[in-house]
Design goal:
The complex is a heterotrimer.
Chain A (H helix, E strand, L loop, with lengths): L1 H27 L10 E7 L10 E4 L2 E12 L2 E8 L10 E6 L6 E6 L12 E2 L1 E3 L4 H12 L1
Parallel strand pairs in A: 1-7, 2-6, 5-8
Antiparallel strand pairs in A: 1-4, 2-3, 3-4, 5-6
Chain B lengths: L4 E12 L2 E12 L3 E5 L6 H9 L6 E6 L2 E2 L5 H8 L2 E4 L11 H12 L4 H14 L15 H13 L5 E5 L7 H18 L2 E5 L12 E6 L2 E6 L1 H5 L4 H11 L4 H5 L1
Parallel strand pairs in B: 3-8, 3-9, 6-7, 7-8
Antiparallel strand pairs in B: 1-2, 1-4, 4-5, 9-10
Chain C lengths: L1 H33 L5 H11 L4 H25 L6 H39 L2 H7 L4 H39 L4 H11 L2 H27 L10 H31 L1
Helix pairs in contact in C: 1-6, 1-8, 2-6, 3-4, 3-6, 4-6, 4-7, 4-8, 4-9, 6-8, 8-9
Classes of the chains: A alpha/beta, B alpha/beta, C mainly alpha.
Chain lengths: 146, 256, 262
């Protein structure tokens, strides 16, 4: 009887612990146990200042993926986006880098295009808008006045 | 060979802090015989046993068991030597979180590969030999001192050891109980034929069991003699010991 | 004057010896873990003692730590109008820092002291000697199952602590103070990365080894302590020592681990 009690106790403990660990790593840590079924799309920006890997990608304000990699390529920022498989992006869709609120995080916003052609796995979003830097805007405004 | 020493202590010295307890102990323990170590309290009798068991490293001197020097051999070899040992500690040293049965079964479970039924048979047989059958499910704390000693003895003998050490097997027991322990003891020795080393205060009763008696006094072994020789020895220290422990109880008798 | 230096030297030697002993203890214990035979039941039993019996303490302390984080965090963040970040603030501080450390401290208090006292009593009542004389390695028999159980239990207890803490923070921040339930979780999901959870896991693993190491070795060497190691008093002072030393080293190691892992 005593043996059974100990084993039950340990069993409960192990399952509770593993469940919590699982919740933490899968839900919070974004661990993909089954491999990602998202597809990759790349985009070039002149400036991605403030954008981080893992930032969200939104269409019409709905999160459809995340930024998986940011590299410098030919003095331009080459950003790889992971997009949910059921979301199709038109060839002329426009990717732009925006800020949530005034001091919030940077994210990639995709404006839907009108083309009939869709971008395949590994394709590239050709039309992009760079990050808007507040300081640049302010200085531009001041110096143009003079 | 009868005069074959399986344990040999050569000039063992050991001190704790500034207090030197053993000042050069020499002792030979013969195979198949019972050697009793006697001496006053606090003289380090248990310490001698701990040296033979390899639990304590001497400051200087050598402790040889089966001709191997204990503090010079590897852990593995020490372990192999210890498989020949059975030890009854002063306070029995039973595992107090385990039942009597589990205590006695432990060496079998950890050291052999026999089945649980076989283990049960051996354990029950040993417990019966010690007259403590029926205590299987009890915990050591629920046993009396004498029963603990006997369970300890059962555990020491469960693997049929070649050398058995008894650290004060009868201390704290009344005369009837200690006689019982002695009876159990001589019975099992006859049956199993082990070499034994006994540390005891129980003079003169213990002389009946002993083949050899060694007196530890002031950190050295005065002599190791047969009980008869011991009682008739000319050595002043041994004479003094024999007189104080076995002599007349009342000083008036001495005058007579 | 000479006496003073003599004492200083003796003290230094004593502590050096003790440290060395503990190092050797760790070496033999870890060695005995990988050495056969492997027995499952002692590990289950120790996992029960160290892990399963600690669940309630962990849930309780976890919930209250999360609740106080929710309370403090909400008031501080609302000064900047950033209540939306409450979820990630609570989750990050729990996962990276408070979960591993507090869970380890609770386990030290609950199980570490018990381990030290148990082994200490086995030592002074010659049970450890008895094991050695039976040619049973005490490291293998007593210590190794505790190490394995500690290594299994601590990360799991930490995970339970984190999750109950997050729920506690939700209870206060959203349930009582009226924050937004959706933003609490979405900010959390967005800001917590796997590297944060990895950091918490590594920390809790290290703390598990640390607790068992310090508490077990303090008990194992109780007879070598200065000033009357034997007897109940020796065990009690060794236990106090073990709990204090492991608590201090948990906080110390926490700093080192954080600086290495960041």
């Amino acid at each position: 009887m005593k043996k059974i009690n100990i084993e039950t106790g340990v069993g409960i403990f192990l399952i509770a612990g593993l469940l919590c660990l699982g919740y933490l790593s899968v839900k919070l840590g974004d661990v993909n146990l089954f491999g990602s079924d998202r597809y990759l799309v790349s985009a070039r920006f002149a400036n991605v200042s403030g954008l981080k890997e893992g930032a969200s990608v939104e269409v019409a304000g709905v999160s459809v993926g995340k930024v998986s990699k940011i590299n410098l390529d030919d003095y331009e920022a080459l950003v790889e986006l992971e997009i949910d498989p059921d979301i199709k992006l038109q060839e002329d869709a426009i990717a732009s880098i925006r800020t949530q609120g005034i001091i919030g995080d940077k994210y990639v916003k995709i404006k839907v295009g009108g083309s009939e052609e869709y971008i395949d796995e590994g394709g590239e979003l050709l039309e992009t808008e760079s990050a808007i830097e507040l300081e640049e805007l302010v200085s531009k405004y001041i110096f143009e006045k003079e | 060979m009868n005069d074959n020493a399986i344990v040999e202590l050569i000039d063992i010295k050991k001190s704790f802090g500034s207090q030197q307890v053993l000042r050069g102990v020499n002792l030979r323990i013969m195979e198949g015989k019972t050697t009793v170590i006697v001496g006053g309290s606090g003289q380090g009798k248990s310490l001698i046993i701990k040296h033979i068991l390899g639990l304590v490293t001497p400051d200087s001197g050598r402790a040889l068991v089966y001709g191997k020097e204990l503090n010079k051999i590897s852990k593995k070899e020490l372990k192999d030597i210890r498989t020949n040992f059975g030890v009854l500690f002063q306070n029995s040293a039973l595992f107090d979180s385990m039942t009597v049965y589990d205590n006695v079964a432990l060496p079998l479970r950890e050291r052999t590969r026999i089945t649980e039924e076989e283990t049960e048979r051996i354990v029950n047989e040993k417990l019966k030999m010690m007259d403590v059958e029926g205590t299987n499910k009890k915990y050591p704390a629920q046993l009396s001192g004498g029963m603990k000693k006997r369970v300890g003895l059962a555990r020491a003998l469960v693997l049929d050891p070649k050398i058995v050490f008894f650290d004060e097997p009868t201390t704290g027991l009344d005369a009837a109980k200690s006689n019982e322990i002695y009876r159990v003891f001589s019975r099992t020795q006859k049956k199993l034929g082990y070499t034994s080393v006994i540390v005891s205060h129980d003079v003169p009763k213990i002389f009946k069991l002993a083949d050899y008696v060694a007196l530890l006094h002031n950190g050295i072994v005065r002599d190791c003699l047969t009980p008869d020789e011991f009682q008739l020895s000319d050595d002043p220290v041994i004479k003094d010991y024999v007189e104080t422990t076995m002599g007349p109880v009342y000083s008036s008798e001495m005058e007579v | 004057m000479l006496n003073y230096f003599e004492k200083l030297g003796a003290d230094t030697l004593y502590h050096l010896n003790q440290t060395g002993r503990m190092g050797i203890f760790l070496f033999y214990s870890l060695l005995s873990i990988i050495r056969p035979p492997y027995k499952i039941f002692p590990i289950i039993k120790q996992t029960y003692v160290i892990g399963a019996l600690s669940i309630f303490v962990i849930i309780f302390t976890g919930a209250f730590s999360g609740m106080v984080l929710g309370l403090q965090g909400y008031h501080t963040l609302s000064k900047f109008g950033a209540e939306g970040l409450l979820g990630s603030a609570v989750a990050l501080s729990l996962i990276r820092e408070l979960g591993p450390v507090l869970a380890a401290l609770m386990v030290t208090g609950r199980a570490g002291s018990a381990i030290c006292a148990e082994i200490g009593i086995m030592r002074i009542s010659e049970q450890v000697d008895a094991l050695e004389c039976m040619a049973i390695d005490p490291h293998k028999y007593i210590i190794a199952p505790k190490f394995i159980a500690g290594i299994i239990s601590l990360p799991l207890l930490t995970a339970i602590f984190d999750v109950t803490g997050i729920m506690g923070g939700y209870l206060v921040g959203v349930g009582m103070l009226g924050g937004n339930a959706g933003t609490y979780f979405s900010s959390m999901y967005k800001d917590v990365e796997f590297s944060d959870i990895y950091m918490g896991l590594v920390k809790s693993l290290c703390f598990g080894v640390l607790i068992i190491w310090i508490c077990a070795s303090k008990g194992y060497y109780v007879h070598l302590n200065r000033g009357g190691g034997f007897g109940a008093e020796g065990v009690s002072s060794a236990t106090t020592n073990a709990v204090v030393l492991s608590s201090v080293s948990i906080l110390l190691f926490d700093y080192f681990l954080t600086s290495v892992l960041l």
